[in-house]
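Researcher: Going back to the complex we discussed earlier. I've cleaned up the inputs and rechecked each line, so this should be the final set. Can you rerun the prediction on the complete assembly and write out the structure?
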Amino acid sequence: MSERYEIRFSGSGGQGMILAGIIMAEAASIYGTKNAAQSQSYGPESRGGASKAEVIISDQPIDYPKATSISCMLAMTQEACDKYHGDIKEGGILLVDAEEVRKIPEGRFRVYSYPIIGAARDELGKTIAANIVSLGMITELTGIVTHEAIERAVLARVPAAFLDLNRKALQLGFDKAKELKKK
Amino acid sequence: MAENKKKLLQGNEACVEGALYAGCRFYAGYPITPSTEIAEGMSVRLPRVGGKFIQMEDEIASIAAAIGASIAGLKSLTATSGPGFSLKQECLGYACLAEIPLVVVNVMRGGPSTGYPTGPSQADIMQAKWGTHGDHPVIAVTPSYVQEILSETVRAFNLAEKYRTPVIVLYDEIIGHMREPVTIPAPGELDVVDREKATCDADDYFPYDERYEIAPLAPFGAGYRFHVTGLNHRKDGFPTNDPRQIDLNNRRIMRKIDNHREEIWKNEETFLEDAEVAVFTLGSTARSARFAVNKAREAGIKAGLLRPLTIWPFPDRAVTELSKRVKAIIVPEMNLGQMTLEVERCSKKADVIGIHRVDGEPITPAQILDVIKKHK
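Model: Rerun complete. Updated structure for the full complex:
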């Protein structure tokens, strides 16, 4: 199981967690050279409710498509953080939105807290880009895909009118994660 | 950076690719989670290849429209999930008796009734076999991987065309909604079967000609006169009360599948040569099982996996033979024991142990590995 790298994106329905998972899987398997399997779970409501997307990345063929021992988890809401952090493995990474997740769960993993949604709002003028900021941060924190692969994957998935916004969002994520790592 | 030709596709998107590859040119459906992406994909893609997409008023009308299009000569598809699959049963039986090629996809979600729309299950395995009344033939294929949804959808169309019967593509929400890199096969890479054409004079044509095991099906409107009905019928398709005729036809529609089980069956075997304990399962649960079997092998346990890609007709022979060689057959399934019963029926010597889960969560590799360890 050591060769599986598992990432969980969690938040509430409508925050783009599933899209973030799809883009990460494409960065790894289409614009990179690894295998990837992306799955999700969400409730019957189309907005709200805890939602999660998971990406398994491996050099080997991937059988079980769900996360069991998470290397990196993103939590964009307190509810999602509480509900889904239990599978983070020892030494793994938990990245949370600092404004949404006030109660940090205890565990033997590294926690990075940053106001992701706030940064998207204040620095990009679009809270909707928060999921792309988080992709930049996860790429920087984990190194599981290259900057180039994630950028190509992001730009291939977003509408043409928003290419510039998303490029900036990704760069913002790289930069902020770099600062967090120094602390 | 190396860019491969693969695309990251959702299981349901791969189903669309498979249907189009097979030459499907008609889709009628009514959207339902977790199958809706098939309807969405077909609505975008079919018009580009000269096909027709229609969203009908409900699931019953959808399968009826697909049957009509198939009689007119088009390869036709409808897709749904449990509640819709229940509604389609009457017409499914109609297509069995009237011998209309058709592919019906059921992306299984939690049931019964409206159940758990966004959660997976494998609880429609028996419904696929016995959902419609009367003795009738059923072919159901069961992919486990996104790439395999594409190729098994092609195989489903091929079987439908060859045997003039509806074929069910049965997979769970997990593989319907998950995404994996998929290579779209080049034209010619996978076999594509078209139904046999009628070549005789119109006066000599009978759609249920007793001289054939499977008579050619002439497209309606091509000059061949015949009747299509859900009543027991004569060779020209008109209703009959003749006991000899009714018996002949009822037995023939079963025989045309039974006689070709070898060709319809498809199993994948992993580490079965020297296995002492085997797992039998399909769909996403087979992915958990393969993971568990690999872990068991790493721990020195002689475990193996028998994975059916055709669940109906049930792979009796493979299970019987396996049961003579292993101590136990473990049957994990996201239902309360539908396949387990079938495996028990076929197993001659081995213990049969079911693992069942109906909480909308997948059966994990760890759950299966625990049972393997107990029965090694």
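Model: Worth noting: Helices of chain A lie at 17-29, 78-84, 116-124, 130-142, 147-157, 163-182.
Researcher: Good, that matches what I expected from the previous run.
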